[in-house]
Amino acid sequence: MNGPELIPVVIVAVFAGSTVLVLARAVARRIEGRAHSSTPTFAPEVSERMERMECAVESIAIEVERVSESQRFLTKLLADRERTALPASGRGNQQ
Fold it and tell me: What is the pTM assigned to this prediction?
């Protein structure tokens, strides 16, 4: 094969190669899409139980926040009491 006879073979090879590449990418994306789009399905009992657990965790979080807010308030109250009590006790010791 000389130069003029080789040109159609090269054109067909490039076209066929690019077509195969495009088709392979499309198939790969379709397979990948199926893997990511499938969501697990649960039985209704499991879904209800998960909802109850979610509510329980939320209520525990609220209670923990209340306890921590109470602790902050009491700590501030005790610190204020110590500040007001220290100068009075200091004067009593000097007399």
Answer: 0.44
